[in-house]
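Thread: "does anyone have the structure for this chain?"

Original post by V.I.:
We have the sequence but no experimental structure in hand. Need at least a predicted one for the grant figures.
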Amino acid sequence: MKYHSFGRMPFTVSNVGFGAWQIGGSWGEISEADGRKALNAALDAGITFIDTADVYGDGRSEKIIAEVLSERVGDRPMVATKAGRRLSPHVADGYTKANLEGFIDRSLANLKVECLDLVQLHCPPTEVLYRQEVFEGLAELQAAGKIAGYGVSVEKVEEALKAIEYPGVVSIQIIYNLFRQRPDHLFFTEARRKNVAVIARVPLASGLLSGKIKAETQFAADDHRNFNRNGEAFDVGETFAGVPFEVGLQAVEEVRKLVPEGASMAAFALRWILMSEAVTVVIPGARNEEQARANAAAADLAPLSNELMTASREIYTRLIKPHVHQRW
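Reply from O.Q.:
Generated one for you, C-alpha cells below.
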C-alpha cells in the first residue's frame, strides 16, 4: 500500500480505498454484519479512504461506517460522502444551498461527526456545473465548518473539466478502468496541473473485470446489474461501465491472457488503474472480508510493463472504445 496527500486537502490516503456502495445496497443481499466485516478487513489491511453516499441504502452505508469507526482505535480514515441524489425529481433546480445543507446535516447525523471530510455532488445534471451559486453555497457550508472540502462525482469527462474550473473543487470522482480509458487524456493532465484529487470509481466494471462473471450469471432483482442493465434507474455507465454485456465478456477473455501468473484479474485491473499518476485513490467495493483483503493487496502488485499496458489499450481500442469513448 502506498500513501500520499489527497490533492490540496490535509489528508493522507491509501492509493486503494474502500467503496461503500455495496454495503449500502443495490448489489443483491449483503448483510450488515458482512458489511461491517468487509470494512474492518479493509481498514486492517491499511486502507485509509472510504467513499460512500447518502443514498446508498438510504443511509445504511453511512451508518455502518459510523458504527465500525466508533469501535476502532487509532487514526481515523478519511470518509467521503455524496449529496444530491435524494432529490426527487433529480433536477438542476434542486441543487440549492438549503437542500444541500439538509442532505449534509443528515450525513453528519448518520456518520456521527461534526464536520464531513469531503462532500461530493453526486453525479448532478450537467447544468448544475454551470451554476456558480451552487459552488458558492458549498463554500459557505465549508466556511461554516460543516464540510472540510467539496468535490464532484461526474459521469462525463466534459463535466469533470468544467467542475475543476471552480477553484474550491478539490476532487473529482470519475469512472476509470480498463474499459473506460478516456479520462487518461486531457482531464488527467488538467487534474494534475491543478492538484485536484482523482477518485477512480467502478474500477472492476461492476465485476466484469473480476473475470468471474459468465454469460449465464444471474443477478438478484435488487442488483443494479439486473435492473439497470439498460440505464432504467440511473446512468447506464454505472453498470458494467456502460459496455454491452456480451462485448464486455469477450474483452474480459482477452484481458485474461494479460494477467501475470499468480495474480487475479481483479488485482490486475486495479493495478492497471494505479499505473496512472493522476489517480489519487481507486475505490473497489467488497461484499465480504475476502474481497476487501484482495482489493487492498492489489496495491502491492509489481508495476505493469509497457508491453502489458500497450496490449490492454489495444483491446480497449478494438473492442470497447466504439461503445463508450465519446459517450462519456
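V.I.: this helps a lot. The chain is about 35% helix and 15% strand.
O.Q.: and The beta strands are 3-6, 9-14, 18-19, 49-51, 78-83, 118-122, 150-153, 169-175, 197-201, 281-282.
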